[in-house]
Amino acid sequence: MDTWLLSRMQELKDLQGLIGLATWDQEIYLPARAGPARAHQLSTLQGIHHERLVDPRLGDALEKAATEAGLTDDERAMVEVLRREREREVRVPAALVRALAEAQSQGLHAWREARQERKFARFQPALHRLLSLRREQADAYGHDGERYDALLEGYEPGMRVARLTPVLSTLREHLIPMVGTLSGTARKAPDLFDGRRYDKDAQWRFTLRLLKDIGFDLEAGRQDLSIHPFTGGTHALDVRLTTRVDETNPLSAIFSTIHEAGHGLFEQGFAPEHHRTPLAAAPSMGLHESQSRLWENLVGRSRAFWEHYFPLLRDSFPEALAGVDVEDFLAAVNAVRPSLIRTESDEVTYNLHIAVRYELELLLIRDELPLDELPAAWNARMERYLGVTPPDDTQGVLQDIHWAWGELGYFPTYSLGNLYAASLYRAAERALPGLEGQLRQGHLLPLRDWLRENIHHHGFRLPAEERVRAVTGQGLTDADFLGYLRTKYGVASCQGR
Amino acid sequence: MDTWLLSRMQELKDLQGLIGLATWDQEIYLPARAGPARAHQLSTLQGIHHERLVDPRLGDALEKAATEAGLTDDERAMVEVLRREREREVRVPAALVRALAEAQSQGLHAWREARQERKFARFQPALHRLLSLRREQADAYGHDGERYDALLEGYEPGMRVARLTPVLSTLREHLIPMVGTLSGTARKAPDLFDGRRYDKDAQWRFTLRLLKDIGFDLEAGRQDLSIHPFTGGTHALDVRLTTRVDETNPLSAIFSTIHEAGHGLFEQGFAPEHHRTPLAAAPSMGLHESQSRLWENLVGRSRAFWEHYFPLLRDSFPEALAGVDVEDFLAAVNAVRPSLIRTESDEVTYNLHIAVRYELELLLIRDELPLDELPAAWNARMERYLGVTPPDDTQGVLQDIHWAWGELGYFPTYSLGNLYAASLYRAAERALPGLEGQLRQGHLLPLRDWLRENIHHHGFRLPAEERVRAVTGQGLTDADFLGYLRTKYGVASCQGR
């Protein structure tokens, strides 16, 4: 490949890394009064990234490379990925970019105030403006009549509403009766969080032990504390996880660490020859989330895993866990209970929370739901799918930050992550016959290596669903996920599947 | 001022802030394996900064603004500072910039190996290359026959060898006999570091207490740990100090924190209306160092200061300091003793270490000292000025990192800092008649406010010496510094001054 083009790819990747650093730092270490200064710095950096991405010389070089003979498959993929990213960015007029940035900032502000007042109406005008701009943006990107597709493409390249809706609707129809059956039948375990204290340093050490066992390389990454755990960083050799430590409940730290480690392994697993190129990236948010979910739920909430780790956990908290056995603990980490808040929900109810959001944001982008009916529509769906009714908007339609800054199209990637995770785990079980026994001994590296070889290493070479199909033999499906839940929770198929 | 020009100034400042962030992070939090990735990111960022600084459109805008009527004084100063910076950068050919970067990297590598082998000869070829490129760079910058001036200009704008050499030579001639008189006469204090343990957390808390009292705003900055303490950050509201904690000796943490806080106060003290402009910067490294030295030595090693803080220190380390009184402690922090290592030297001998370096690097840049004679020349001067002889090159000519990456012209700014510090402190005593009494009560804010108003607030508006003259009534002089030492250590003038 042309050395100029390669150096431009590397430069763009370096700039993304630096945006990652400035964002990570902002969430964790930025002094309180430096917010506006950092906003300026980030805006400058993003502006330079934009300017260099839309540079016509880059466009010409990409066009030329796309027709060039003699490129390797990887080089062809690099050119293709960057071309697509560039074409999207070029299509959005600068005035719309600015208007969106402003509306996002106002949206966040209004959302925070609305949450304080517990009144959606306070946020409604800002959301109205954001929706209108996002529709305009979707039209600028271009679509075949379904604007939502154009937004979804930014998070889940290649996925379309026509493909997604049937899968998520069927999933929903299977989950609703399953939740009904399961909730209330939970084993009555002792409440592990009834005022017991779990030493913070011991929690931190336990999470570091988990990172080591999972194979997250702490010489190519780090873990810090933050209020909202996330995965960031600047490069495959500089991947930064955060976790949170709650003295009254160690599950928060444990599952945050495992979840973020799943994301982090993806980032650390990119092929070294792809570093500083467009291929050193996950092909979609859904596939990224599949890795965090696989580790968090399929592994981290399994009996085999805790047969190994529960004795170590009890050693870490001998007082708080005195008299608790592994069955009590498994019951606590696998309790199924319909709840109001998505981020606190279990692996069975979780996708129903996503169904509510996906269906509503699709209506909103299509302009088929008047905004003043949104809270009622939210509450009605929560009642219908989960049997719970939010007592106010803050515990209902205002709970997530996503819409507050106009991020529509992101929510379904969480469900895609859950579905892909189950399919990939099933493929791993077939490929690694001793997997469960390995987990039972705390040997997590064979699974990590299998995921690295089959998923992480490929980076952005194939769209997510094609990569999953290459590994599992099939594309997006809810069968593996539902099968996993039925086996784990001992529920018979409710609709004759 | 033209809004385009202002936005370019802001953008350049934002990029400098981001370079600051990436550098700070690299020293403290970067994972071990991410070094090469960060080097790429920094090089990309520096390349973009360079590209935008030498952009001919910026040159035109600056030329136009320089002749424009109706600019405020501040705007005129912004234009002037950026013009000078740009002109220097424009003059160095890109090939030379690349060659220097490569030679610096090789220099650091060779220097580390040479230190391991304790042999200067291992480093000599790399230094030879660096010197040759730095001479070339000096010629590119332009000078009146004294190449060193062109390099000094990068650290101490406006200063010249012709002005500096007489001052530093006279200083040296006064210090040599003073050191002779003082060393050996030190009060025989109990050794405070004979295996006693000073709790690390208590040291950390003590440094935070000092930062608070000194008026370093921890909501507009932070303190972290690093091996080599430094001051970095991204903006006047995001100033980042580091300190180091040695369990066997709390003076390391205490004086590192006070020193870096002096630098940090300068950065935090820039006028808000100068933020994101070329004026939000110190006009020279010497004036910057004057602030760290003033707090570290003039305040932090004074009797008045410790009359307040020693009781607090004893409360922090009741076991280690049992039976130690303030006199013992003052003797320990003010012991004068010729030594081999600059960074461990006291305030009397320190400038003799600088004299060795300044004189030698001046000879090197002038090409008047064959490189293979450098270690012997170093040792001879150490013997002559300080009466000590390095047992090997690692404790001699190889001790500092500066020459390892070709930084010549920096060392004298340390002595300038000491001289300016004494002059400024004397002016502060005149302006604040109750100063000593305030220190004695731990009231440090009046001094900070005076420095903020007279030094920090002005940023880059005047060259360093002019700023000092505006405050003290005189420019660079060794009289205040020598007077301070004579009074403090009770030495009579040795040469009839």
UniProtKB/TrEMBL annotation, chains A, B:
CDD domains: M32_Taq (cd06460)
Catalytic activity: Release of a C-terminal amino acid with broad specificity, except for -Pro
Cofactors that this protein relies on: Zn(2+)
Database matches in InterPro entries: Peptidase_M32_Taq
Keyword flag ATP-binding: no
Cofactor annotation remark: Binds 1 zinc ion per subunit.
BP GO annotations: proteolysis
EC number from the UniProt entry: 3.4.17.19
Active-site residues from the entry: E260 (proton donor/acceptor)
Record family assignment: Belongs to the peptidase M32 family.
Protein's UniProt name: Metal-dependent carboxypeptidase
The species this protein was found in: Myxococcus stipitatus (strain DSM 14675 / JCM 12634 / Mx s8)
